[in-house]
Structure formats: C-alpha cells, structure tokens
Amino acid sequence: MAELPAGGNWLSVPAPAKLNLMLHITGRRDDGYHNLQTLFQFIDHGDDLHFRLRNDGELTLTPAIEGVSFEDNLIIRAARLLQKKSEKTLGADIRLDKKLPMGGGLGGGSSDAATTLLALNQLWNLQLSLDELATLGLSLGADVPVFVRGEAAFAEGVGEILTPVPELAEPWYLVVCPQVHVNTGKIFSHKGLTRDTDPINIRTALKQGGRNDCQAIVSMLYPEVGNTLNLLNKFNLAKMTGTGACIFSSFGSEAEAISVSEQLPAEYVAFVAKGVNQSPAHKVLFRPS
Ligand SMILES: C[C@@](CO)(OP(=O)(O)O)[C@H](O)COP(=O)(O)OP(=O)(O)OC[C@H]1O[C@@H](n2ccc(N)nc2=O)[C@H](O)[C@@H]1O
Ligand SMILES: Nc1ncnc2c1ncn2[C@@H]1O[C@H](COP(=O)(O)OP(=O)(O)O)[C@@H](O)[C@H]1O
C-alpha cells in the first residue's frame, strides 16, 4: 500500500474476512432467496481501509477495483446510504488496501461495506446504533450484518438472524484460494443444489459442525475447487467457505498450518490466519480508552 497522503487525520480500520464453518440450505423462499443456517467466524486477515474527513460532501476512493465502477463499489454504496440517512453534507477520502480475493466466499466486499458503515458513523459522528447500521447493511448484502455486529455468530434467514457464539474455538486456519471467481447466483439457481437440509439447533451446530451444501455443486462446476479440496483433505479435513471458491482447514497451531501450506504446490495461493470471535474492525473502533 502506498503511503497515505499527508494532511488531515486518517482513521485506519481493518475489513476482516469471514469463514462459513458450516452452511446448510434449509429451503427456498417465495422471493427466490434461500434460507440458510451457517456459522460465521472472522479471521485476522483481510482488507484495510483508511478514511479522512471531507467537509464538502465529496467521496473519493483510491485505488478503484478493476471491473467494479465507483458507484457500484460496496464501499461507496455504504457511504451513500449513510449520507442519505444523516442528511449531512459530510464526505470522505477513502483508501483501500485490497488483499482478499473477490468471489472467494471470504466476504471481502461485505466486510468492506460494514467497515465503511462503522468507520464513517464514527468519523461523521452520526451516532447510529449497531442495529441501525446492520439494517442499512442488509440492503447491501446478506453477509453485511454479521460484519457490522462484529461477533462470531450462528446465522439464519438469509444470514441476518444472528445469535452470537463466543464459545467457538479460535484455531489457526490454512486458507487456499483457487483462482476462480464463483458466481453466487449461479450456485443458488442450480437444479442439483441441496436446498432441503433439515434445520438443526445451535447446540448441534456447535457440537457437530456441519457440511457446506454448496460444496458439491461448486466442485462440479469449478474443477479447481474440487481438486483443491481433494489435495487438502490428504493433510487434514478441508471445507469450502460460502459459495466458494476458497477452501479452509483448521489446525491447533500456526506452525502446523504453515507446515501444510509449505507442502502445497508452488502455484497454490494460500495464507494462514487465526480464527477470531470478535471482528478486528470492532477491536480498533471500540477499543477501551
Ligand atoms: C451464501 C453466502 C454465505 O456467506 O455466500 P458467499 O457470498 O459468502 O460466498 C452469502 O450469504 C451470500 O450472500 P450475498 O453475498 O448477499 O449474495 P449475493 O451475491 O447478493 O447473491 C447472488 C444471488 O444468489 C441468490 N441467493 C443468495 C443468497 C441466498 N441466501 N439465497 C439466494 O438464493 C440470489 O439469487 C441472489 O441474487
Ligand atoms: N469493495 C468491494 N470488494 C469486493 N467486491 C466488491 C466490492 N464492491 C463491489 N464488489 C462486488 O462484489 C462481488 C463479491 O465480492 P466478495 O464479497 O469479495 O465475494 P464473496 O461474497 O464471494 O466473498 C465482487 O465480484 C464485486 O463485483
């Protein structure tokens, strides 16, 4: 990341990735969306965003994301929602240090949106509650509310009915990112998708975990995903996050995770990160003073 331009104070806030430790699809709703049951946990790896106040109502974002227009970028969409809500003419310069792959199931876009809502709420002194920010966030994407609330959670509905699960273990993860962009809509509309898994309760989800109902279809449509799962499974149980493409495997120590990553073929893109039940964004913004 290039140095932040001089002048003004920059507020730097991480936008962590999430993993779906299990993902069951329990039905299809009348609006075409699917009801899910999923366990969300954050990892201490993600994008970084930097915000500087402007008093002229303008928004800038540097650098742009290739293939995503300025107004479509979830960062700008989140900022616009807050501008509308506050009826104030505040603006911001925003710098994005993008590290997460797009369409990887790591929730990078949703996390960028949530970090923007949290950071600008503070920078613009809007005093919106987490409930209000989560409701605004849901209009941007089903995964935004969990990032706004910042607690590892069991999620139901399309992901907006959240029950915190602070008791989740916080292992080290090896995350491998096959270089394909999975189209979420294509997976949910596939006729072979398992979409009638019986609902389970939180206790069962925490005790037994669960599978990812999208994994079989994604592996079939994107062979790189299936191949990566097969390879990682030789070392340790591996699972896909969200609608893919990224695969993760958990370890008791950082050293074990690194050791497996070092045994992967050189062309594999992978990183090691720690599972955390509190969002790193919350750690920065709600640090006790
Ligand atoms: C399933 C998850 C789990 O985390 O996958 P990832 O995106 O993280 O991989 C998310 O909740 C994804 O939520 P979100 O990111 O909002 O989904 P979008 O890309 O907007 O969804 C694209 C399309 O998939 C379908 N869709 C999405 C979510 C859902 N619960 N049911 C659906 O049927 C809808 O047709 C929607 O138009
Ligand atoms: N700031 C952003 N970061 C990533 N993706 C964005 C962003 N703004 C808009 N998008 C769009 O959202 C899509 C989903 O991105 P992302 O959240 O990273 O994937 P996933 O939901 O699979 O983890 C991207 O393909 C891109 O078109």
From TrEMBL:
InterPro entries: GHMP_kinase_C_dom, GHMP_kinase_C_sf, GHMP_kinase_N_dom, IspE, Ribosomal_Su5_D2-typ_SF, Ribsml_uS5_D2-typ_fold_subgr. Keywords: ATP-binding, Isoprene biosynthesis, Kinase, Nucleotide-binding, Transferase. GO terms for molecular function: 4-(cytidine 5'-diphospho)-2-C-methyl-D-erythritol kinase activity; ATP binding. Its EC number is 2.7.1.148. It catalyses: 4-CDP-2-C-methyl-D-erythritol + ATP = 4-CDP-2-C-methyl-D-erythritol 2-phosphate + ADP + H(+). Residues 73-150 form the GHMP kinase N-terminal domain. GO terms for biological process: isopentenyl diphosphate biosynthetic process, methylerythritol 4-phosphate pathway; terpenoid biosynthetic process. ATP binds at P101, M102, G103, G104, G105, L106, G107, G108, G109, S110, S111. Pathway: Isoprenoid biosynthesis; isopentenyl diphosphate biosynthesis via DXP pathway; isopentenyl diphosphate from 1-deoxy-D-xylulose 5-phosphate: step 3/6. The active site is at K18, D143. It holds the Pfam family GHMP_kinases_N. Residues 197-269 form the GHMP kinase C-terminal domain. It is an enzyme of class 2 (transferase). Belongs to the GHMP kinase family. IspE subfamily. NCBIfam families: ispE, PRK14608.1. Catalyzes the phosphorylation of the position 2 hydroxy group of 4-diphosphocytidyl-2C-methyl-D-erythritol. This is 4-diphosphocytidyl-2-C-methyl-D-erythritol kinase. It comes from Thalassolituus pacificus.
